[in-house]
Amino acid sequence: MTTLTLARALNAGLRRALEDDPKVLIMGEDVGKLGGVFRITDELQKDFGESRVIDTPLAESGIVGTAIGLALRGYRPVCEIQFDGFVFPAFNQIVNQLAKMRYRSSGNVALPVVIRIPFGGGIGAVEHHSESPEAYFAHTAGLRVVACSGGPEAFTMIQQAIRCDDPVIFFEPKRRYWEKADVDTTASAAAAWPLDAARIVAEGTDLTLLAYGPMVKVALAAAAAAREDSRSVEVIDLRSLSPLDMKTISASVRRTGHCVVTHEAPVFGGLGAEIAARVTEECFYCLEAPVLRVGGFSTPYPPSRIEDHYLPDLDRMLDAVDRAFGF
Predict the structure, then answer these.
(1) Neighbours of 154 (CB within 10 A)
(2) Domain termination site, one of 153, 183, 213
């Protein structure tokens, strides 16, 4: 085991992918000489050369369009979008080309493109730098959408995403980049937890708390606090946002009878709405209360001085837990 930040775990996973497959390329704004704004690709251009770690112009549509062409020629490009809000200039390429090509070709053409997107708030950055756009992509058929929550997961998940023949939108919780954990850098990605499977990270019997990305840590803190009130909360890290691992989710809710979903994105039209609907459909006769959602407000991302009020925190999560038991 090696103690690594989430950022360094991603770096190690990308390095392993570059070593294992000469068709893997990394491309994006400042990913080479600078190593990315968060230094996720630090030292990779020096070790693998400018033909495999490519500094691109500031043009997200061009980055993704070029990656699609490279994938059609047999490469496995990994695109970095510097900040979540910068992905939208490439939205047309992602939704109308990348997501549809395999279906359009009756499965004959694969586009193994990974698009890495640092997402979420908590770093004191303004709009365009603290967004949570995952629902846009989860709504788009043909894309896999995943979110890592910590270093050990990040190390294997980025490798699994690169090996996948489907296009993958890979969300990274930027406010967790500097948090450390023990990572087994000798672990085989092929033998790791499946990319499309959720994971129970804290067992419980009274309520199921669903989270992903930056909110997993908050959910675990809520579960620990709830134990002081003799409430046993099971925390599930969704990991895969599309497809959803409803088998794991439903099995948990049937045991606990209560469910709360949390994410940083606004509650209205967020991923939690889809999850709540599906849990209600599959677990209706086991539920003892409505499925509740905890998320951001339906406003543009606020100035940094008040982002702590905007972001879902421990108190708001515990309030939802209390309300669930109040029915």
Answers:
(1) 30
(2) 183
**What are the residues facing 54 on neighbouring strands?**
27
**126 has a pLDDT exceeding 90:** no
| pTM flag (> 0.85) | yes
What CA–CA distance (Å, rounded) separates 22 from 29?
Answer: 21
Residues 207 and 281 in one domain: yes
Report which residue type is found at 53.
Answer: V
Instruction: For residue 128, give Cα distances in angstroms to 47, 260, 295, 304.
Output: 32, 28, 18, 12
CATH number of the domain encompassing residue 109: 3.40.50.970
Determine whether 129 is an active site residue: yes
- Which residues constitute the domain of residue 138? 2-183
For residue 276, the domain's CATH number is 3.40.50.920
Mean pLDDT in residue range 128-134 = 94
260 shares a domain with 117: no
Average of per-residue pLDDT across 228-238 = 96
Which entry of 128, 129, 258, 309 is annotated as an active-site residue?
A: 129
In the chain the beta strands, taken as DSSP E runs, fall at 2-5, 24-28, 53-55, 76-80, 114-119, 144-147, 168-173, 180-183, 199-202, 207-211, 233-237, 240-242, 259-266, 292-296
Distance from C-alpha of 276 to C-alpha of 280, rounded to nearest angstrom: 6
**SS3 assignment for 151-175:** HHHHHHHHHHHHHCCCCEEEEEEHH
Residue type at position 134: E
Amino acid identity at 215:
M
In sequence order, the 6+-apart residues with CB closer than 8 A to the CB of 98 are: 64, 68, 111, 113, 142, 143, 167
Section 192-199 average pLDDT: 95
Question: Whole-angstrom Cα distance, residue 171 to residue 40?
Answer: 13
